[in-house]
Each structure stands twice: as C-alpha cells, then as structure tokens.
Amino acid sequence: MTDTIGRVEQPETDAVLAHWQAEKPRLTVLAYNMLGVWAQAEDIVGAVGEQVFTMAPTSAAQVHNWPGFLTTLTTRRAIDVLRSAQHQRTQYVGSWLPEPIDRAVLPEDAAINDSMLRLGVLHLLEELPASSRAAYVLHHAMGIRP
After folding, report:
1. How does the average pLDDT of the chain come out, rounded?
2. Which residues contact 82 (CB under 8 A, 6 or more apart)?
C-alpha cells in the first residue's frame, strides 16, 4: 500500500497508529488532569503521537504494552510541562487555577466525567512536586497502580 507521498506504509506503522488512536482520549484526559489546560493536554498527546510515529520499526516492535508505554510518555511530558509551568509561575503574582472547560461540547465527555478531578483537588495538587502530582493522578484518577 502506498500513501500520497509515495513511501511504502509499514505494517508496524499501522499498528502504532491503531494503538495511539485507541489510547488518545484516555491520554488526553490524563494530561488534562495533570495540567488543567485542555489545549496543553492535546499538545502533549500530539507530541507523544509524533514521537511514537517516528520510532524505528525495531523499537516499535519491542513495545509489548502499548497502553503502558503511551501512558509513560504522556506522564513524562506532562511532568516536564509542570516543571516548566512552576518555573514560569514564580514570576506570576496571582494564584494559578486550571482553565475551565465546557464539557458539554467535548466528544470525550464520558472519559472526562469518569476521571475529572475537582477544582479544589487540582489547586491542592499544585502544591505537590511534579512527580508526586503525576503519581497521584495515575493512582487516583486513572486507576493505575504502582
């Protein structure tokens, strides 16, 4: 099979795409729960997708647990953004709160409703270091056990 650019599609690429598309809504909710900004969460998931699509076929073939692998990549990128945001907020005078979203217009309504952290918890989580915040979100919001 050939795409519009003229390169031959690899079966591994199709498998990677299928795994990423299946996990994309869950990963977006995970990143949103950590960051509190939907646009940043979508950017992180897009960057994770770009990262896995550019993996060498031999590296992709070595991944045995795609949901876990994608969760790890998303969590690490969110931690990096949180650390950067904490550094940027040292210059900000006001209090930082997550951006509110209108959940009625999002197609991921069910996923958000199932795992949404309350605004107060997000405010308290802001006080935690990035790695502790990620552990809390993975454990409580996503149901992942260490």
Report:
1. 76
2. 34, 35, 130, 133, 134
